[in-house]
Amino acid sequence: MAVIFLALLPGCFSLAERDKRAQDQRFYRLPWTAGESHRCIQTGPGSYSHEGRDEFAVDFSMAEGTALLAARDGVVLDVREDSDRGGSDREFAADGNYVHIGHADGTRAVYLHLGKGGAMVDPGRRVRQGDPIGFSGSTGWSTTPHLHFAVERLNPATKRWASIPFAFIEVPGSGVPRFLGKYRSRNQPTEIRSTRKTSVAPGGMPAPGGGRSP
Q: Residue 54 — φ and ψ, nearest 5°?
């Protein structure tokens, strides 16, 4: 029976390895307002749509218009908020609104499926953990309103971003959300400190000296 059971769970050992590797990236707070709880409706690897570059991403169910907060300090690299298209077919995959935030270690956080006009930040903005960055939605390849969150690193060989294991400070145990687990945030929003944008050097990280542009 043990052999059969393990055969039915081909990813069980890779999940354990994922949890172990995630401890190197346990810098993140859940990206919504402190006191709110949301349920994990997809994790990875090997689930419905989390494969390839998205294998370590997680999805959290939430109503459209839920306030999203920065999970970690960083600089906004890219924003899209003009789409009003979304649906359950893969053909909508390129239609999702998003905010990408770069971190000092070269990783970036992906906040995907924002609502139309749902971004509160612009590229170049320096944000602190807990700063408001946008509002959730259901644009892109999405079967229900939710937030898709991933931490990615650029592969120098392929020049493509791909997700890596990460963990949340508030999530018990390994810090990696479990399918259908419901998690309460302790992420405290802070005031966005300036209306001026932080200049960003090539490659998406802050310019030396933290210079600012008008």
A: -100, 15
Provide block-wise average pLDDT over 10 residues at a time, the chain (214 residues). Answer: 32 73 95 97 69 86 98 98 96 97 98 98 97 98 96 94 96 95 90 39 36 29
Assign 183 to helix, strand or coil: strand
CB 166 within 8 A of CB 151: yes
DSSP string, 127-140: E-TT-EEEEEB--E
Is 146 in the active site? yes
The one catalytic residue among 38, 103, 146, 148 = 146
Q: Which of 128, 153, 166 is nearest to 43 (CA)?
A: 166
Q: Which amino acid is at 135?
A: F
The pLDDT of residue 165: 95
Total Cβ atoms within 10 A of residue 29: 20
The confidence score (pLDDT) of residue 53 equals 81
Domains parsed from the chain with CATH numbers:
27-189 (2.70.70.10)
